[in-house]
Model the fold of this input.
Amino acid sequence: MGGPRDHVPVKPQDTMTQDMRGAVSVPGTIDASVYRSIKQYLIPPMMKLVMLLMLVAYEAIMLWQAIATQAWANLIMMAVTGVLLVVVYRYNQNSVIKHVIKQRPELTQGGYRVTITFAGNIKLMNHTTGVERNLAYANVVSMAESDKCIALFAKGRKYMLVPKGEMTEQQREAVLRMLKEHVPGIKTRR
Done:
């Protein structure tokens, strides 16, 4: 009847599995530290570009006005405004994280125990809440990697986090290989 494989217990929450069809399953925990590690990626690139263009345009106008009128106080205002815009940008990053953590108190109480499976689509099974989420590879537009997770960004400002806390280098390579196979031109956010 059964071979030696039938008697070996497999705990998907403790190991990465790769079945015959090439699916890769990675277990992990998503907590507040995982979200904090990707905060710079949660502000969309287009919004960052708009903020940068606004800063450059404002600074150019202030510089032109300072030179034209020889009002050197404008140069001081220019420097102060630049610093304030950087502070506002950092505040926005932190407020996004605080909002996420406030909406999900479990993140500060041990986090969510999840298993992410890369097969025909990307499936996140949240063992803490029992919720299952699916993300089609066709919807993935970019990714970012921090020391705590791989973040996958999809159309419609959606994202999925793949925690790296329990991930080995072999598992990381398998996940990146699956992403490159199914999303050939995936952009990496820096």
In short: DSSP finds four helices and nine strands in the chain. Residues 1-20 have pLDDT under 50 and may be disordered.
